[in-house]
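stuck on this:

***
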Amino acid sequence: MVKAYLRYEFSGAFGVINSGPAPCYDASGKLLVTAALENLAVWNVKQGSLAATLVPGPSTSGGASTSSSHAAAAEVTCITRAPGNSPLIAAGYADGSVRIWDLSSNDCVVTLKGHKAGVTALRFSPSGAQLASGSKDTDIILWDVVGETGLFRLRGHKDQVTDLAFVSSDGSSSYGWLVSSSKDALVKAWDLDTQHCCQTLTGHKGEVWALDVDPSESRLVTGSTDHELRVYAIDAAAASTSAPSTSTPQPSSGTQGGVSKTGNGLAAQASGRAPL
């Protein structure tokens, strides 16, 4: 029997590389942040090495700890980074807490608590001044990143919130709008100034698990377990009403309809769909 393998000796192990949530890059694109159970692992992509491990401290306040004696923390459930060149990373946890980490110092800036169940969606506003979080408790909370406090809570979904996306203000409002998806098969548009849902889209026949707005904010795309992608046009010139509404867009191969961001509401209509 060939025993050439005896020349190799064990040198170390990475442990958990990624425990489930989608990883994200830092602002430079050189570091990749992954969830490693209750910790965050920061990887140097070029070197293929572990640059740092962000370990939550035992207290509810900010601060990271490397001590093995701290109380067991909940697992990381989602990760997102702040826009632009900001070194901030937000992580949601299974106990409903949200921690904001600074990758320049590897410290926990603040721990935010407001959800009663695991955090399932996180998204920074385009300016990075606000952070929206969604949870299994069906609530959405808008946080003030600078003030390190919660601003208000949005309620309306009947099941777990799965994704969030901001639509920038056109100058007629302070915060703009937030679009949310849920396992209840609904997509909701929220006016963040009035803190109310201004429109509910009921086109999907299954759980809606993902949505996003393109960089020019001209299209909104949603994906569902009904094997469909739905594309919505964001039309800043379209007329809108501030009264809440519910619509069921019909499939179309054209680009008519839109999501209006004038006034106090969002008006949405499907501009097309494609089978997965």
Observations:
- Residues 59-70, 236-242, 250-276 have pLDDT under 50 and may be disordered.
- The two ends are 51 Å apart (CA to CA).
- The longest strand covers residues 228-235.
